Amino acid sequence: MTGKSKNVKKSEPTVAVQSKNEVTGTGFVVKIAVASVVFFLLQTLAHRGIEQALGSSHVFEETEPFFTIENFMDDADINELRNFLYEKRRFVTGLDAFSDDRGIEHIGEGVDADENGNCPKDLYRTEQGNCFIPGRFDIGKHFFLSGGLTGAKETYEKLLSSIYAYYGILPKDFIDTSAILQRLFERPQYVEAMDTLCRNHGQEDYYFKPTQVNIVLVTPGQDLPLHYDNGWFWGANRFTIPDYLTVAMTTSGLWDHLKIRQAQSVVYLHGSEEEPVFKHGGNYVFYPDGPGGKMRQLVPKRGMGVIMDGGQIPHGGQRIAEHVNVANHGSKDQFHRVEYQSNDTWYIMNDDDIISVVNTDDLRLSFVWRGLCFDSKEHADTYDSYPEIPLEEILDTFEADMKKRGVLPKNAPRPPPKEFAHTLIKTYISMPPQNVHNSLPFNYCILSKEYPWLKTILSPFCTDVQEYKRLNDELPPARPFCGGRMSTNCPEE
Ligand SMILES: [Fe+2]
Predict the structure, then answer these.
(1) Is 0.85 surpassed by the pTM of this model?
(2) Angle subtended at Cα 286 by Cα 284 and Cα 289, rounded to the nearest 5 degrees
(3) Are 137 and 425 in contact (CB under 8 A)?
(4) What is the pLDDT of residues 59-107, one digit of tens each?
(5) 224: CA distance to ligand 1 center in Å?
(6) What is the superkingdom listed in this entry's lineage (predicted)?
(7) Which residues pair with 364 in a beta bridge?
(8) Which of 45, 63, 235, 308 makes a 20 to 30 Å CA pair with 196?
(9) Is domain 55-461 in CATH 1.10.10.10, yes or no?
(10) Where are the domains of the chain?
(11) 24 C-alpha vs ligand 1 centroid, how far in Å?
């Protein structure tokens, strides 16, 4: 024992001297420098490789027009619209807000859920108990893989709680009857924007037909994932075919002869006259040069208007209050909403559970209207009765094009519907993978969804969802809300 200790003691100074030389010597510095360069190059290559794999290098021939108008809406009008928030009181998710009657929702992959209500892999359950590829699968796929516009490194379960935005729909005739909108429509900058977006070449006049008018609330910790708006065509739209097909019809360029031009306008309502910039960030991000073009960002500022064709330009919103680890929102199949209480306090609710509390100040508020551009009112009036393009005809056109491009083998039959839909989304709907922090554009945390054993290994590098918590015992009861899909504390009649 003693002898061994002696030996060790003897060797120690030698080791120490060697280390000292290594640490301070020129050789060591060179090695570190080389290793750093190699690491940097590998990281850059991985970054580029992932960008290429997840995104698109497609650049438009011309920059798509977009318009920003400072102080588009004046303060009196902003306040009038904000009063609508307090009167309406309840704002619901897009799923509930836009659940109008749907036509065909799948291209043949649809099956019934099994006796336990479960769907096969890659298919998602609807309220009616059917299993489909969801209409906006294209948005979800890109969001979960890329980590969204902030490049989040978060588990699938966590990101599922970060995709909520809440809507209040205004009647379509609001657009014709509202004095606020009439004032905006007369602004020369708006006229110029709509003239550019709505006119075809050489066209004398146009008629703008609104399809939606709403107010959107986004709460802290929520993303507005990058997307293209649904496409609209003579004979095809989101009521006749799945949403992702309307987008692919636009991005493929194969139906340009039937495409209807569209415009979406956003005006921000948050903040105050003194502090117009939203305190929780959440920039508007868009790519007017195409998915392979330069990222543009706008700081959401009270009263500012942003007008563009969202069917043509990929766009989205950076996460609001990035540092907030959002509450676990529970099952996506439950009734999610925000409800106004009083004193600028809002409850985020899931069925009967209160899961979070926010102030009006914390909400990113925008007023949005979108619509289609027709040659004339008469032209617009014929739209609804225009004969539908059969789904099979649309699928045949995509199939022929993918065979021409070499995506599908020429003489083979069309792949089964689920596989065909995934190939189609991958081929035609590509979005930029970059994020506002220019960090690695791949959310590796998503791997644990496919390979659950990876969850523990990845856990130090990934944010997971919080435990589901019901705050009902800690807060005053939610103010009664009677009527609608679900009443809150509504007294029995
Ligand atoms: Fe949009």
Answers:
(1) yes
(2) 160
(3) yes
(4) 999 999 999 999 999 999 999 999 999 999 999 998 778 766 667 789 9
(5) 9
(6) Eukaryota
(7) 218
(8) 235
(9) no
(10) 55-461
(11) 56
